[in-house]
Fold this protein.
Amino acid sequence: VQLQASGGGLVQAGGSLRLSCAASGSTFSNYVMGWYRQAPGKQRELVALISSGGGINFAESVKGRFTISRDSAKNTVHLQMNSLKPEDTAVYYCTFRRTVVPGLIEYWGQGTLVTVSS
């Protein structure tokens, strides 16, 4: 299984970026898909998750600015980031996960860097 993230880059504050993550090697229609980020010197944190049924969970810091969507048929998840702020600067990681009692199957992408200049 491989997850390939893309779409990061340098953008000015107030700008927008769209991240995409495509998975290969299996089918993921019943997986939760989402994004985490890690800023320099900080722990990785949740950005957004979307379930197979379309349920969405956002970090408070991105609510109203970011949207998440998925195309299960294409094994892809997207993160539309609007009104970007310098504090959004981080490496963004996509993840696909599924609960398999008693544990979890989890895959991660390689990360894509988002830099927001002030």
The CA atoms of residues 38 and 83 lie 19 Å apart. DSSP finds no helices and eleven strands in the chain.
